[in-house]
Amino acid sequence: MATQPMLLEMPERESPPSRPSKPAAPRLKEPNRDQFVMDSFDLDKLIPENHLARGIAALVESLPTEGFLKENKSVEGHAGRPRLSPKMLLSIWVYSLSKGIGQASAIHAEMAHEPGLRWLAGNLIVCDRTISDFRTAQGEALRNTFSGLLGILNREGLIDLTELTLDGTKVKANAGSDSKRREKSLQEHIAQAANVVKELEQKEVSAEISKRREAAIKRGAEEKHQRLKKAAEELEEIRKGKKNDAEREEARVSMTDPEARTMKDGHGGFALSYNVQVVTETKNKIVVHVEATQQASDQQQLEGVLERLQQENLMPERIIVDGGYSTAGNIALAEEQGVELIGPVPDLEKQQARNCEQSLKRAGIAMEFGPSAFIQIEDGKAMRCPAGKRMGRQCSNAEFDQYVSTKSDGAGCPHQAKCSPKGQRTVKVRKPNEVVDAYIKRMKEAGNQARYKKRGPVAEFPHAWWKDKLGLRQFNVRGLVKVGIEVWWAALTYNIQQWIRLSWRANLAVA
């Protein structure tokens, strides 16, 4: 094929001068945070099949929660929006406590992004006030739900009520030591709070403050005034337990949580606390009863616990305790209730010597004129005092004989200042206690010693779980009633976690 001739001659183009080469700029995709995003997702795929939230929801569906609807006004066929399901709110609290979240505001903040909470709430955001009110306002309903849980655990063979343990643990109150005040300072704060309430009642609503805000301010002032008045009442109760006028004068009460009491903690220090009594069965360490008290000592707690166990049809054949409960009175009490008490052998002589020393000191009597200085005569019908005077027996019962001197003998006695500074002397002589002797003999048996060794691993396990996993080292609420409800929440959460560990996860693995 013939080639076409060139039309124009084009001069060759000169190449541009060479420049130093630059590295290519990176190509990046930056986040656009100003865009509006509509997302779609499968809510059920947020968590796996073995997620804790699924186990909690599965069990809560079987629990009785009708008590939470006792004051419900939202019913089908009538106006008004539907009420949030108590099973959902119950599951949210149990799941949050399992994660160590014990404050309603913290739960509300987590609900927008925490997968377990999103799944339990169906992607709803529940306000913190609703979450908080559900925890503190339903004490009776919560205990009924707890009883229903025990029934489920019993049907699955996870509970054995034959043998229980009882132990107490101190939990700090939601108040600091600097909140304690004596009577004079407390009365000043009460007067100031009363004046604030009076001023707010007379003040007109400001245009700059909404009515809701104004109502909240007034409500806060009134609550503070009522709390301080409660503190004055609690101060009187504290004074009743003091030994002399000097101690009663120095008595103090917390203005933040008046019902809290100063107790010795496990580290040797003192803090405003509550004493939580926990009853646990020994088979799987399931908690069967809890109670918060204001008494620091465990000695007085056995009677009340046995009474409530009997009311709830939970009385055991035996109950294992530590040395704080092993007193002559508690041993006799357990014998009367038909419960075998298992605990350390009490050193009665040491206890009696300590109690005697304290009694003599309070009465202003010298130690050399203690009960051991008096001698029983006439087959126990009378005593001879160190001065040789006769003291007649005033009364006699199953526990002790009581002898009393006459005022005329005390007035002419050379030892009156050391022996009977009040002019009349009373001496008690304890009788041999057959019930305590039988208990001491029984506790020397190898079988009972082996049973007592269960106490530590069983009784202290829930305490450690609550404080380490649930974060219950300090209460989130104030007042004995609300503190008691928070304790029941901890017990319910703990038992549900044990069910998940012992039953639900095992069955899920088999399936």
**Given the C-alpha coordinates, what overall shape results?**
elongated
| Radius of gyration, in angstroms, nearest whole number | 35 Å
Distance between the amino and carboxyl termini: 83 Å
The class by helix and strand makeup works out as alpha+beta
Mean pLDDT: 85
- Report the biggest beta sheet as strand number plus sense, adding barrel if it closes: 6 strands, mixed
Number of helices: 18
- The CATH level-2 architecture of the largest domain is identified as 2-Layer Sandwich
The number of distinct β-strands equals 13
**Helical coverage, percent range:** 40-55%
In the predicted model, the low-confidence regions spanning at least 5 consecutive residues are none
Beta fraction: 5-15%
- The CATH superfamily of the largest domain bears the name Ribonuclease H-like superfamily/Ribonuclease H
- What's the CATH class of the largest domain, please? Alpha Beta
The count of domains is 4
Could you tell me the CATH topology label of the largest domain. Nucleotidyltransferase, domain 5
Structure notes:
The protein is of the alpha+beta class. It folds into four domains: 43-67 and 83-137, no CATH class; 158-174 and 260-345 and 444-492, Nucleotidyltransferase, domain 5, CATH 3.30.420.10; 179-254; 348-433, no CATH class. The protein contains 18 helices and 13 strands. It has helices at 52-60, 86-98, 104-110, 115-120, 128-136, 139-155, 183-202, 211-240, 245-250, 301-311, 328-337, 348-363, 407-411, 416-419, 434-443, 446-452, 455-468, 480-510; strands spanning 163-172, 180-181, 253-254, 261-264, 270-281, 287-293, 318-320, 340-342, 375-377, 382-384, 390-396, 400-404, 426-430. The strands form three sheets. Strands 1, 4, 5, 6, 7 and 8 form a six-stranded mixed sheet that branches. Strands 9-10-11-12-13 form a five-stranded antiparallel sheet, with no helix packed on it. Strands 2-3 form a two-stranded antiparallel sheet. A hairpin with a 3-residue loop joins strand 11 (390-396) and strand 12 (400-404). 26% of the residues are buried.
